[in-house]
Design goal:
Helix content: 40-55%
Radius of gyration: 16 Å
Largest sheet: 3 strands, antiparallel
Bound molecules: iron/sulfur cluster
Number of domains: 1
Low-confidence stretches: none
Number of strands: 10
Shape: globular
Strand content: 15-25%
Mean pLDDT: 90
Number of helices: 8
Structural class: alpha+beta
Distance between the termini: 23 Å
Order of helices and strands: HHEHEEEEEEHEEHHHEH
Length: 188
């Protein structure tokens, strides 16, 4: 893992240092959806024998898709992640950025990639007022301090992922924080 990605992962771990008790009480579905990967993350997870779906050498997912007659049902929404076992992530220390960021995430709207706070998460539903404002400010600051090249790679990877992802029931509920591009531009 490159040093920028490692630093970002460490800072996200610190941001979410108090989340576990909330997760323990949560009754929402966990670990469903397109678990996409940066190319570097895919390469590290290959080394751990994690099954990966690779499309056009540019788009990578943890392989949790159903297969019928040898074909992947890539359009089936919200596949449960096969790496979740007995209620726990079996690759917790190596889990990808998309998992480390959640419930902060990315959504595309009007061709813009937006940084959002997903609301289908007990943690984000429970925080409000000053606590929520402080949490969002910290998340934004962490990303602002991240290498623009890494953020650009995240943005590009997410665009590719989103282009082939299916959301037939509509997008998840979320609250917009800011366009991801604005955080990249602030650092350039
Ligand atoms: S990699 Fe781990 S944390 Fe991420 S969706 Fe799969 S089980 Fe959950």
């Amino acid at each position: 893992m490159n040093s920028h990605l490692r630093k970002l992962c460490l800072e996200l771990s610190f941001l979410y240092r108090d989340i576990r008790p909330v997760c323990a009480e949560c009754k929402d579905h966990d670990c469903e959806g397109y678990v996409w990967l940066l190319k570097e993350e895919a390469s590290s997870l290959y080394d751990l024998d994690v099954p990966i779906v690779e499309i056009n050498d540019s788009t990578f997912f943890i392989h949790s898709f159903e297969e019928v007659d040898g074909s992947l049902l890539i359009n089936k929404p919200k596949p449960p992640c096969k790496l979740r076992r007995d209620g726990l992530c079996s690759i917790y220390d190596s889990r990808p950025l998309v998992c480390r960021m959640y419930p902060v995430g990315l959504v595309t709207a009007d061709e813009e990639v937006l940084l959002v706070l997903h609301k289908d998460c007990k943690f984000s539903r429970d925080i409000n007022g000053e606590t929520k404002a402080a949490f969002i400010a910290q998340a934004v600051e962490i990303l602002k301090q991240t290498s623009p090249d890494l953020l650009n790679e995240v943005l590009t990877s997410y665009r590719d992922v989103d282009a082939i992802s299916a959301f037939p029931e509509g997008p998840n509920t979320f609250e917009v924080i800011t366009p991801l591009r604005s955080l990249i531009n602030e650092r350039r």
